[in-house]
Each structure stands twice: as C-alpha cells, then as structure tokens.
Backbone:
C-alpha cells in the first residue's frame, strides 16, 4: 500500500479535518469520534487486565499455598511478549486493523473464560496467562498503528498515544486497589468473569466505533517468515533502530526502584504504607510530565526537549547513593518519572521514520521489546541487589542508564533527517 501524502500541519484524517498540529491539545484529540472509541476500549481492556492479574495471583496462591507460584503468574507474562511480538507481528499489517483488534479482544475473552472453569488447574491457568501475553503485543501494536489512521501521523497522534499512556500509568495507581476491593466481595473466578466482560466490551467498542480500513500490507508469505522479515526491515534502518533503543533502554533501568521497593521500604522501616508510596511515585511523576508536555508545550518544544530529557530522566537515581529517606526517595522517583515526557518527542519521530506498510509490525515490535526489557531489568536489579544492596543497585542503574542514554542521544542526532524520515 502506498502511503497517502498529507499536507504539513494537518491531522490528515476525515474526522478531524484541517486541525493545525501546533494547536492540537488533548481536547482536540477527544473531538475525534473514532479516538473516543479507541480510548474507551483501551480503558476497558486495561481494567480487565488489572483485575485478571490480581484475581489470577490470588487464585493460584489459594490453590497452591505457594508465594513463588503466585509470583510466577506475573513473571510468565514477559517472555511470551517477545514471542508474540516477533513471530506473529505480521498479523498487525496483513489483515485489516479493526479485524485484528476485535479478534484479539475476543480471543483474550476466550482465554480468560477458560480460567473461570471450575476444573482449571494450575497448568491451565498459567498456560492461559502465557497465551494472553502472546496476544497482547499484537493488540497493542495494531492499536498504535490504528491511531495513525484515526489521528494522522502528526501531533494529534502524539497526544493520542500520550493519553493512552496516562491511562495506563493511572491504572497502576488505582487498579490494584480496586482489584483488591473487588476480591473482598467476589471470588477470584468471579472477578475473572468481569474480565471476560471488559474484553467483550472493548471488542464491541472497536467493532462499532471505528471504521473498517484495508490491510497495510498485501504480503502472502507464511506468517512467521513475514513477521521475521518485517522485523528485519524495521531493525535494518539505522534511524528506526536507535529510536527503538531510546524507547527500550530508559525503562530497562528505571524499573530498578520498583523491583526493589519492598526491601528498600523494609530497610527504611516505613511499612506497607511507605511501600505503597514508593510504588506510586514514579507513575505520578510520569503522569505529571506527560500532562504538562502534552498540554503546555508546542510540538517543536517537545521535539527539542526529547533528547535532553531522555539523558536526564535517570539522573535522580544517583541520589540513592546517599541512602535517602522516604520523602527524598519519593522526590527522586517523581522527578525521574516526569522526565519520561521525552516519549512524546520520540513518538513523533518514530511514526515518521517507519513506512506505513510496516507500522503495525514496528509498533508490535516496540511493545514486545519494551515489556521484555522491563522484565530483564527487574530480574537484573534483583540479582545485583543480592550482592551490593538496594541503594547501590539503584545508584548504579542511574549511572549506567544515563551513560547509555547519552550514547543513544548522540546516535539519534547523527541520524536526524535520514531518508526514512523524509
């Protein structure tokens, strides 16, 4: 499919004709009817996932009495992301996006419905959890690519994706609390039934709230071969490759305080309340940074600040060398989270650097890589902390992460204006 040329500074979509990119704000994004459907579907899917993770963890613990098995219900969700995001990513481009999104939601509803069955044992529960993680990057990648159809590839897309991230971060603040409250009145399997309903609602919103569009790619090669070929094409471009690394590397280091929050809170003697605050500080900073950058800064300013911010976002972690108390730790984490506003600038560069016929695969690969490196980062933080302690591990993540970000920023400058982005 040939990429449709758009006039500079317009949204390029029928739903939002002629909206100047420099005037686009969050309110303008919600003015696009199809985006409202995508946004609502995202909220329902996210709600379902949060409930299912809590309910499944509790259910596995009740069946086994093992904290390790309960923790595995979270851990097994990382590796399948990489599998689905690489071997099956071609699905996002070779079929109409709306069909991919609706089918993914229906398949996920089916997987969770299997978990609800009274006879479903531990093996079945973990297998279904893995299956959900295989489908997730396909859904998320296709949804991100769909945003370019709905909002164009200008500033409206950047703000639309920002809103979806804000919802995801907000869910971290309230989702687990709501899930715990829900489990106080219904059984874990009953909570999983609610997850089935949220996936079905998401599917209905996407089916009837978005327009049918043709597939981006007419590829008819075997799926796995097509997916791997697409991944190679995406990674072969120097500009795209460095942007992907800029998406992946900071989160790989930034998860260190989250992975080690429990032992650090224990060392400070702040109890479960302090632990909750430590877990919330980074998402709070992220939401604040995204909201400010999206609502107060012009697109040109966000682009100028992207690389300086990505180089600074991990610097607050170096403050852990002083073994800060609770209040100082919260401040450092909030500042680091605010630095993640660099994502708005990267989003704009990334969507322009990837050819339209590869966008679904590129977005899927981005999502899969992001989840995988965060899992690796958490595991590495835990291993290192066993030898040098929590404070030294977080400090090291700040130092090493900042160095890596600086090197990537230099490479990103070198690739500006590459042919793929013109």
Residues:
């Amino acid at each position: 499919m040939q990429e449709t040329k758009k006039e500079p500074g317009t949204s390029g979509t029928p739903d939002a004709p002629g909206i100047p990119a420099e005037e686009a704000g969050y309110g303008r994004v919600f003015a696009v009817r199809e985006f409202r459907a995508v946004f609502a579907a995202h909220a329902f899917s996210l709600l379902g996932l949060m409930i299912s993770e809590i309910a499944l963890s509790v259910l596995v613990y009740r069946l086994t009495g093992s904290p390790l098995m309960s923790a595995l219900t979270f851990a097994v969700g990382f590796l399948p992301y990489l599998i689905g995001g690489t071997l099956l990513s071609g699905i996002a481009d070779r079929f109409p996006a709306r069909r991919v999104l609706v089918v993914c939601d229906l398949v996920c509803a089916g997987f969770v419905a299997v978990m609800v069955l009274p006879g479903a044992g531990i093996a079945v529960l973990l297998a279904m959890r893995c299956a959900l993680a295989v489908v997730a990057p396909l859904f998320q990648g296709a949804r991100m690519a769909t945003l370019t159809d709905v909002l164009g590839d200008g500033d409206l897309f950047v703000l639309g994706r920002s809103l979806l991230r804000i919802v995801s971060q907000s869910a971290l603040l309230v989702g687990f609390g709501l899930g715990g409250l829900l489990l106080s009145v219904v059984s874990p399997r009953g909570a999983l039934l609610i997850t089935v309903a949220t996936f079905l609602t998401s599917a209905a919103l996407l089916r009837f709230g978005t327009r049918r569009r043709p597939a981006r790619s007419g590829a008819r090669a075997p799926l796995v071969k097509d997916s791997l070929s697409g991944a190679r094409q995406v990674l072969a471009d120097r500009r795209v490759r460095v942007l992907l690394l800029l998406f992946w590397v900071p989160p790989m280091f930034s998860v260190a305080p989250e992975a080690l929050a429990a032992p650090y809170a224990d060392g400070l003697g702040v109890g479960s309340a302090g632990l909750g605050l430590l877990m919330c500080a980074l998402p709070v900073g992220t939401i604040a940074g995204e909201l400010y950058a999206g609502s107060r800064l012009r697109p040109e300013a966000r682009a100028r600040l992207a690389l300086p911010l990505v180089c600074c976002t991990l610097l607050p972690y170096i403050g852990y060398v002083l073994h800060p108390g609770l209040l100082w730790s919260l401040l450092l984490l909030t500042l680091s989270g605010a630095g993640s506003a660099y994502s708005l600038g990267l989003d704009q560069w990334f969507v322009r650097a990837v050819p339209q016929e590869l966008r679904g695969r590129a977005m899927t690969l981005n999502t899969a890589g992001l989840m995988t490196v965060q899992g690796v980062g958490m595991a590495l933080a835990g291993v290192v902390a066993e030898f040098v302690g929590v404070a030294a591990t977080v400090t090291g993540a700040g130092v090493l992460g900042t160095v890596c970000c600086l090197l990537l920023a230099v490479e990103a400058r070198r690739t500006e204006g590459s042919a793929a982005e013109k």
